[in-house]
Amino acid sequence: MNKKILVYGDSNTWGWIGVEEAFPSTRYNDDERWAGVMSDALGSDVSVAVDGLTVRSTNLDDSNDWNNITADMFNGAKLLPCAIAREMPLDLLIISLGTNDLKSETNRSAKDIAEALIGLSEISNQSASGVAYKYDAPKVLIIAPAPLNSMPHPDFAAMFEGAQKKSKNISFELKKAASGRDIFILDAGEIIGAAASVDGLHISKQQHNQLGIAVAKTVKSILK
Predict the structure, then answer these.
(1) Could you give the count of Cα atoms lying within 13 Å of 186 in the half-sphere of its Cβ?
(2) Can you tell me the distance from the alpha carbon of 25 to that of 22, in angstroms, rounded to the nearest whole number?
(3) What residues of the chain score a pLDDT lower than 50?
(4) Integer Cα distance of 74 and 80 in angstroms
């Protein structure tokens, strides 16, 4: 039986290529991004929809509008119900967010970010009755983001001041917050280590490949 997955993430799901000048940048090809690698590994029996948006956080509006994208549209919690409804029926929702919650302006702890991620899973659990349909809510897999690395560019360094240390604790706090809940957790840091692109914020092409293969293995065990 065919299965369907929705991947809901930020710039690392979008496929941002780290550059020395921080930004602007371009993106990796579909088959180079971790979600594309995962899709290839899962095969034709699994359909994968990908919704990756640069700057997206768990449940916070951004502090800026970006061209014709207003600040509130980067709030993952606000747009998740529409994203799920658009792709229903779904067997699995993969949430890959949390890095942008580490911006210094948010003043969030690792525990705060973990609880926000759990909040997204609760939104998914309420998605069974959407826009004139009735489907089961999908299972949920949350990927704890890879820890940040040193950021040589002053713009990113200022934007994420103090975030490197906090980023190492998100997975620990997420596993605690998810205890006793019907949620699957995968720690990207255990698989690929800290973000290895030149900007210290985004994951490298090699890390995309490693992560995609690992996520596919986890998905197979969830959907079997």
Answers:
(1) 23
(2) 8
(3) none
(4) 11
